[in-house]
Design brief:
Shape: flat
Helix content: over 70%
Strand content: under 5%
Distance between the termini: 43 Å
Structural class: mainly alpha
Order of helices and strands: HHHHHHHH
Largest sheet: none
Number of helices: 8
Number of strands: 0
Length: 195
């Protein structure tokens, strides 16, 4: 089973002070987590790979700008989220200029069209925005448990909560996220449902 823990604060601090071996180990140790963030937040596997690679490059180049060595996971989450959003916006600006089909493209192909890719990316952007809009305490527990994949007891300990309180907060976060994602399309369509 893959290691679910992020590189420790000692390694981060050494990398921040220019230790090349520590920096290499930090990038290598962060890679699986960054990949998981990217595949959760980006609309397509290709965007996820590109966003993860860009995030790791930023980590390598800018580790010195990280203020708290214990904040690596949240810093990388923001970088990956921003990369996914940037790619979505880039696609939206390019999509109208793209013609139908592509190399070998035709009506019978199973590859998604530019419009379908744009819609998928819009959905990913919507999910990322809904997560970002959660109250801080809910967003933190949701990211740690569902995005980082940390065990429940670890999340509870890191947040200074009982396991029951952590589960309750996680349940509220998931419910709020589901509600936000469920209601937004209806509001966009102008639906007047009372449900």
């Amino acid at each position: 089973m893959a290691d679910r823990t992020w590189p420790g604060a000692t390694l981060v601090a050494a990398a921040q002070h220019g230790d090349v071996e520590a920096l290499t180990a930090l990038v290598h140790g962060s890679s699986p987590h960054v990949q998981r963030f990217a595949h959760t937040l980006c609309a397509s596997p290709q965007d996820a790979e590109d966003a993860a690679q860009e995030a790791l490059i930023i980590l390598y180049r800018k580790i010195g700008t990280l203020r708290a060595s214990g904040a690596l996971a949240s810093w990388m989450f923001r970088i990956v989220r921003n990369e996914c959003l940037r790619r979505t916006r880039g696609l939206l600006h390019r999509a109208p200029a793209e013609g139908p089909g592509g190399p070998g493209g035709g009506p019978g192909d199973t590859a998604p069209s530019a419009e379908e890719r744009a819609l998928l990316r819009l959905e990913a952007e919507r999910v990322a925005a809904a997560v970002a809009a959660l109250p801080d305490d809910q967003r933190r527990v949701l990211v740690m448990r569902d995005v980082q994949g940390l065990p429940g007891r670890t999340v509870a300990d890191l947040l200074g909560l009982s396991t029951a309180a952590m589960k309750s907060r996680l349940h509220r976060a998931r419910a709020a996220l589901r509600e936000a994602l469920h209601e937004e399309p209806a509001a966009t369509r102008g639906s007047h449902d009372d449900t």
